[in-house]
Amino acid sequence: MYNIYWWFFFLIFERMPDKGCKCVVKNIVQEKWEEILEFIKTEYGISKVSFITWISKLYVKRVEDNIVYITSDDSNITSNFTHIRTKYGMFIQTAIQEITDTEYEIKFETDNEPAVPFHHEVSSKAPQNQGLPLNPDYTFDNFVVSKNNQLAHATALKAAEAPGDIYNPLYIYGDSGLGKTHLMQSIGHFILENDPDKKVMYVTSDTFTNELIDSIRTGNMSPAAFREKYRNIDVLLIDDIQFIIGKDRTQEEFFYTFNALYEAKKQIVITSDKPPKDFTTLDERWKSRFGWGIIVDLTSPDYETKVAILQKKIDLKQNEGANITIDDEVISYMAENINSNIRTLEGALTKVIALAKIQRMPATKELAEYALRDVVTPNQKKSITPGFIIDVVAEHYHITSSDILSLKKDKAIALPRQIAMYLTSEFTGYNISRIGEAFNKDHSTVIYNVKKIKDLRKTDHELDETIKVLINKINPDMR
Ligand code: ADP
Ligand code: MG
């Protein structure tokens, strides 16, 4: 009992602002934090909404050994630290350096002090929407439609217009950075704009997993309350489902939620890095269940699409008040040289804008070449080796590269192995005996396997689709 009182006082003192406390010596970063935030806001062309959503609520918890530990009291922010770190980490670090004249490393830290559970208890009584916040920029209006995403876009729009109707579930798959999260959240925005009372829950599969573990381990939320929370919604947007598949307990809980929502005709949107049939450990029943609505994919954008996306992102920043002018030549340079994905493309644009601002120079091609020297390697074709192909195929099928190189004969390994051989013969320019060496197989086995996959592609539509996904992962330009 006394313990509880003790905690109570501890929490109150912990949460008291330390401004008036003479015993706390503030580090210069803490002292100048307001100035640093102001610098980030004005110097890096970050939109007002993004700044308010992601940055304004950050503060410095402590500074030790030239490491600035950043945190926030807002759990929506702390649960998005990965996003904040990737998108704004460089800006925060640079701003600290600019203002304090000292180089610091930054780390994002979730507040593990007892204050957090205290906080949670209060907020768990709040009524609904306990999912993650939607990124205000991820709307249909800001999504550039082109060949590589036409079908996915059309079905997403349809699902947003008639939630729970024909495209339920909507399953969107594709490589990282191609717009899955953007499209999925556009559905959420659209539905909420038409009916703000709708309960739209956006979660990553990580959040889902962590909440489930939390509900079981700490008793913060009973398993029944956990189920209730996920049943009591109109739209479930679950991002990157691949991280749930294969985790028995979480998967089971997700299926439970899926069934409950589906039966109640609530819209379910799933994103993943691969189509359901490629999850080798997933039950056939579930592979077909995920396909009850529609399965669509996103692929790499072509040159024109990349130009249009860059233009859109620049317009967005300008509309939000940023003063940016970028030569068309720079846009073409980026669209031509950045092939990997749209996230990298957008990161490149942000880098060029940041450098132009810091150097107070126009964003010319020379400046872009300098800013992107680590991202762009002109005229240098990525060399595709059998090892790389084996890694990509193994990762895709959730097996190991040594499985592919082993003598194991079960289908879950034999098929990926044959596919890897086929792709090696297509992409490396190796002759049959070199492929044989790379896979530890004799000449005739290689010929047989390569031909088998080549023929199968003509008759087996699903396999052909999988191979296109793999080709896209190996070399997006060759699809
Ligand atoms: P994924 O979830 O597939 O990894 P994201 O949805 O996070 O990819 O997209 C990465 C970035 O690329 C986001 O900033 C997103 O706005 C942008 N993006 C992707 N596709 C498009 C598009 N068609 N039009 C405009 N922006 C796009
Ligand atoms: Mg995503």
Describe what this molecule looks like in 3D.
By secondary structure, this protein is an alpha/beta fold. The protein folds into four domains: about 15-120, GMP Synthetase, Chain A, domain 3, CATH 3.30.300; about 130-295, Rossmann fold (3-Layer(aba) Sandwich); about 305-370, Helicase, Ruva Protein, domain 3 (Orthogonal Bundle), CATH 1.10.8; about 385-479, Orthogonal Bundle (Chromosomal Replication Initiator Protein Dnaa, Chain: A), CATH 1.10.1750.10. About 55% of the residues lie in helices and about 10% in strands. The chain is built from 23 helices and eight strands. The protein has helices at about 1-15, 30, 35-45, 50-55, 75-80, 80-100, 115-125, 150-160, 180-195, 205-215, 225-230, 250-265, 285-290, 305-320, 330-335, 340-360, 365-370, 385-395, 400-405, 410-425, 430-440, 445-460, 460-475, and strands at about 60-65, 65-70, 105-110, 170-175, 200-205, 235-240, 265-270, 295-300. The strands form two sheets. Strands 5-6-7-4-8 form a five-stranded parallel beta sheet, with helices on both faces. A hairpin with a 2-residue loop joins strand 1 and strand 2 (about 65-70). Helix 3 crosses helix 6. The chain is globular, with a radius of gyration of 25 Å. The protein starts with a helix and ends in a 5-residue tail after the last helix. The model is unreliable at about 5-25 and about 115-130 (pLDDT under 50). The structure holds adenosine-5'-diphosphate and magnesium ion. Adenosine-5'-diphosphate binds near residues 182, 312 and 346. Adenosine-5'-diphosphate binds near residues 142, 143, 309 and 346.
